[in-house]
Amino acid sequence: MLKATVSMGKSNAEPFFFVPGANGKFAIVSDDENIEPRYVERANLLSVIATENTVHNRLLHGFITNYRDFRSAEKCVELRSFPALVKHYSFKKRMPRCGGALLMSGASALRVRTKLFKDMGDKKAQRLLQDESEKARHRSNQKLPVISTDDFSKDSSLPFVIECRNFYNYYHFTTESMIYLQMYRDYALSGDIHFLTGGTSEVQPYLLRAVEDFYPDLFDKVSFLTGGTRYKKAIIPFNTNHLYHCSDSTVMKDIEEGAGFSNNLKDGDLRPETTENYRWIFRNSRDEYIQRHRDDVLKRTYVHEGSRYVYVSRKQGASRQRSVVGEDALIEMLSRYGFDVVQFENMTPLQQASLCHSVDILVSAHGAGFTNMLYGKPGSSFIELSHLQTARHRFGDFNMHASASGVNYTHFFADHDVGESDEVPNLHHEGHAGISISERVLQKLELFIASLVQKDEQKKFFSRIEGLRRKEDHATLISVINLDTLRSAVCPRTVGFLAEAYEKTEMTQEALKAYSTLVSLVPYRADLWAKVLELAEALADEQTVSWALEMSESYRRARWMRWCRTEHGAIAIQG
């Protein structure tokens, strides 16, 4: 258990966290001393809320609205990373320390925070974090120690020590650890490479194969170590994300206005060391070595032979969780649009990367395999099947991968595989819930796929419908639409034309039914709720009037979605 030995409020207390520059035990390797973050293109995030659970539907609309209004940014902050020469470095019980104080860097900083909150309690841990970071920001000798590459050359053969969450999760290993092998190359390091974790599990073969596939020249230098380790002197990868909270603008310039954070954040607002501020930066940033790793891996990939449309299924028995209920029907539907079915478990990491860089559309359930979106080609579509539990606990995990690759990253929200309960499964107690794809949810996914695959056919269909509408040939329009069982069921634009035609031919009951279907598809449209109310009142349908009044109000905050709907029906999430 971590115990805070720091004396709160006393300026002469020993620091609980290691502060680069406070002593001679740390120096980054750089020739220009420039540690300023860069601003790059953000992830292109889209959402399709297809869940049939009405409670979850409202919650997801609220979640996406909150993300857009309070958690997004106009640019992705690319944070700099450097090799750091450290003295008296240790790693024990998952905690990296330098000179005995906790060293906060990269993803390990989040794990340190998590353990602090678990061991000390929320209030005490938060106070410690804020007090320590504030003291660090107000140091009189704010300067990050730097050593030139020439001066560093005599130490380049020291062990290169990389912290890992564990030795089995492909997402964490790739995103937080393996990317720094490219740093090893960039700075011409020559020592042994030590991947460290506090766990006791054996390294999984696919992680070994990933190193061998992507860094074959370094494979023989790599060791995977568990348990406690100490180094009198070593080299570590140092990411500047946590440094932002422990420094002022003389060390790292403010990022809030440059990145265009939502909610009108001003420069310096994210400096305080709070959990929310940390997460805010995490969701809208990436390590520069995410991009450098991608660029090098793509030099090794090849053109994958096969369909440009792919569904990634899970090998039976590969995971006890995250089943896809209705997968047979899903695969049958996708096969009609030319999709191949693959399983990443049967492919090497290089084969997975090559596949992802070759495809135009990839569909898969949420999971570590989505890390391969990092290798996708710009403009391709990666569609993640998930649900409300994933949104609450894992939303944003792959933003950095989508930002680096330039793909269109769509969150397709279906239902949990727990029946009709309105309760959201507890991730920490019950694990990852599986995904349930009902017939209607499948129709919504098919419509989205068709809009991507059959653009010419879709254009012809709407050209014909709009022509009939201009001619006011309502009878033919109604007939043509009703013959198209997919669009007449789940396409808002089509159902809108149908409802309008029914209304103009004074088929009021049919019009009300069509408008009711329409608002179930686009519940953020206040004008359509008004139309439902008008028709329901004309028919003296008090039940529908009551329903429409309640639902219209519950979706009020999501009305912005009307102006953020893309041509293929997804909602562009970020403002």
Task: Give me some keywords for this one.
6-stranded mixed sheet; 575 residues; 41% helix; 3 domains; Rossmann fold; elongated; alpha/beta; Serine Threonine Protein Phosphatase 5, Tetratricopeptide repeat; disordered N terminus
What does this structure look like?
- There is one protein chain.
- This protein is α/β, with parallel strands linked by helices.
- The chain folds into 3 domains: 78-239 and 284-296, no CATH class; 304-451, 3-Layer(aba) Sandwich (Rossmann fold), CATH 3.40.50; 455-572, Serine Threonine Protein Phosphatase 5, Tetratricopeptide repeat, CATH 1.25.40.10.
- Helices cover 41% and strands 18% of the residues.
- It is built from 23 helices and 22 strands.
- The strands form 5 sheets. Strands 16-14-17-18-19-3-22 form a 7-stranded mixed beta sheet, with helices on both faces. Strands 1, 5, 6, 7, 8 and 12 form a 6-stranded mixed beta sheet that branches.
- A hairpin with a 2-residue loop joins strand 5 and strand 6 (95-98).
